[in-house]
Amino acid sequence: MKQSTTSAHDTAAVRDAAPDGAQRQPAPGELADRLEVYRTELTGYCYRMLGSAFEAEDAVQETMVRAWRSHDRFEGRASLRSWLYRIATNVCLDLLKGSRRRARPMDLASPSSVDTPIGTGLPETTWIGPVPDERVLARAGDPADTAVARESVRLAFVSALQRLAPRQRAVLILREVLSWSASEVAELLGSSVASVNSALQRARATLAASADAAPAEPLDEAQQALLNRYVDAFERFDMAALTAVLHEDSTLSMPPYELWLRGRADVIAWMRGPGCGCEGSRLVPLSANGMPAFGQYRADGKPWAIQVVEIAGGRITALNSFLDTERLFPLFGLPMRYEG
Predict the structure, then answer these.
(1) What region, left, alpha or beta, does residue 222 occupy, with left being phi > 0 and alpha being psi -120 to 50 degrees?
(2) Which of 194, 243, 262, 295 shows the smallest number of beta carbons within 10 Å?
(3) What pLDDT digit, counting tens, does each position of 169-225 carry?
(4) Do 77 and 175 lie in a common domain?
């Protein structure tokens, strides 16, 4: 998993050098524009580190504030991009001190049955949350880099990352996703190349033991047709048609609730029973975590969930429904009432 590290803005420090070697300080507006160029990729980095779109955006904002305040001390010894990643890494490591790792429902407990009470929702800090693609993925670029970036923000991969110690997490993302060299990562972390290589080896071993880290299939015409069938079946609440698009071992999860289901039969039974309130829902297409997603509105027009859909083997393998609509619908640019 590799993503290019090149950037047309990395040479800004060289271009701005005065004839005597002193660094020309940019005007405030120019500095703001230069920092803003990196917001999307930094948000993607912080999201992989933290597992929350909201925490990632807060971390990037703190990174920008620290960069703005200390830019007069930035002497161009490294690229502006590398310097920002150093700040962002320190911000994330500070946020992760003493914090509980975020997870998905299937990381915390065995699958429930249809008759299991849904229980009480757990705090938002428990869960890995969804993130809109446009917040963390560049709109244009090399197709191979784009594929790597999409793969590395999948819910399953971000979940696997959370099992790593914070510094191991940073090393793996910088080395395996962003293609930094061991020496660059060592400099950023104030560590040695040997220490970085050791951390990377341990991180790889942890991820290799996680089946969730397996790559997803790229979305093609057949998968798009499958999604169209899913939307049609869900909106008509046709359980026979829904059964036809679900994998036999498909899962249904609903953060902030710990309860989750495994198996097509249980998912359909849930829809017919406790989930019958979804009848008459409308789905608005989105993209989240490099995967297809939908904003789900119930029949009365009120928002119900952000659904992130996973596909493999020509069937839908997971329906991840995130129910924190008050925060998530504005994040995805969705109105708080279905407009048709």
Answers:
(1) alpha
(2) 194
(3) 999 999 999 999 999 999 999 999 999 999 999 999 999 887 565 566 667 899 999
(4) yes
φ, ψ of residue 259 to 5 degrees: the values are -60, 135
Residue 304 phi, psi (nearest 5): -120, -40
Q: What is the CATH number of the domain that holds 248?
A: 3.10.450.50
Averaged pLDDT, 84-96: 97
Task: Say how many Å lie between the first and final Cα of the chain, rounded.
Answer: 40
d(CA 286, CA 207) in angstroms, rounded, equals 28
82 with 226, same domain: the answer is: no
Residue 159's nearest CA partner among 1, 48, 251 is: 48
What does the pLDDT read at residue 33? 86
Instruction: Specify the residue for token string 């946020």.
Output: 95
Asked if residue 196 lies in contact with residue 173, where contact means CB atoms within 8 angstroms, the answer is no
DSSP string, 42-104: HHHHHHHHHS-HHHHHHHHHHHHHHHHHHGGG--SSS-HHHHHHHHHHHHHHHHHTTPPPPB-
Q: What is the pTM of this model?
A: 0.90
**Minimal CA–CA distance to 231: which of 309, 147, 140, 127?**
309
Domain assignment of residue 314, yes or no? yes
Contacts of 328 (CB under 8 A, 6+ apart): 129, 130, 306, 322
Give the helix/strand (H/E) hosting 297.
strand 291-297
Distance CA 289, CA 129 (A): 9
DSSP-assigned states of every residue in 200-238: HHHHHHHHHT-GGGSPPPPP-HHHHHHHHHHHHHHHHT-
Instruction: Give the residue from 230, 238, 235 showing the smallest Cα distance to 316.
Output: 230
Q: Are 318 and 181 in contact (CB under 8 A)?
A: no
Name which residue leads in pLDDT, 22 or 166. 166
- Max alpha carbon distance in the chain (Å)? 75
Half-sphere exposure of 251 (CA within 13 A, CB side): 19
Q: Which residues of 54-79 are buried (b: 16+ CB within 10 A; e: fewer)?
A: bbbbebbebbbeebeeebeeeebebb
| Amino acid letter for position 138 | A
Phi, psi torsion values for 308, nearest 5 degrees: -110, 125
